[in-house]
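Course assignment 3, question 2. Fill in each field.
Student: A.L.
Task: Predict the tertiary structure for the chain below.
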Amino acid sequence: MTDSKNINNPVGQGGGQRKKLSRAERQNNGPHRNLDRKGAADKKAELVRKMREKARAAEAAAQAGDDAAAQS
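Answer field:
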């Protein structure tokens, strides 16, 4: 009997075999993390787009206010 308690060779865990984790997955860089990163990048891009739209709208409103003040 071995005393190894490696994640890929769990002794006494029961419930059958576990999937062998790749080196990247052991370092928490597996395919699931890539999807999380993509989702986070998409959210960030959407947030930046919304912020830029708000900034443009505020700039346009300020410019319209400046134009009205200059004409009166």
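Instructor remarks: The chain has two helices and no strands. The radius of gyration is 27 Å.
Grade: pending
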